[in-house]
# Entry
Amino acid sequence: GAVVSQHPSRVICKSGTSVKIECRSLDFQATTMFWYRQFPKQSLMLMATSNEGSKATYEQGVEKDKFLINHASLTLSTLTVTSAHPEDSSFYICSADEKIGAEAFFGQGTRLTVV
Amino acid sequence: AQSVAQPEDQVNVAEGNPLTVKCTYSVSGNPYLFWYVQYPNRGLQFLLKYITGDNLVKGSYGFEAEFNKSQTSFHLKKPSALVSDSALYFCAVSVNTGGFKTIFGAGTRLFVKA
# Structure
């Protein structure tokens, strides 16, 4: 099946710094990618839909100035957590679909710890 | 509103016994239904999907699921559980809200005891 690669898998950063997470579709082009956040023992919360060549669509309650999304090419979307705080510590997961309505392929996830 | 419900937070089953993980959905139109599995500190892996056709769909690792339109259910099943099946399972539905996106259930943790 299709492969989505997410990097880094783990990152520890200091409060106030910014962290960039990359999501790449390795063998297909993804006009749309999705960013999720997962808290311990909870389901995935959709944060935003990343659209190639245009602005991301954020879900209600997600701060777009806090979580910057850039989808500059058909194979790469990035999520930047700006001015990170300990409450931003979480597991972030990206996904992409090969085609509309098809199953999603997920990245390996990024464990962010803000100290 | 479009939604997916997984009524059980946790399912416990002995190895070798059949397992069922329940899922019900509420969507307008014809649903695209999926099951995914998540192992600790990993992204999700696709197990199986229902788009159209035969109500019983077979997927990876011996799992299957039955689409029941009248009960709006899509329960995940396996005839004989393995300890290695222990993981977090998510039911999901793909919906078109001016663009496709996936709505996930809350997840069900499956424990298979040896």
About this structure: Chain A has a mean pLDDT of 91. The radius of gyration of chain A is 13 Å.
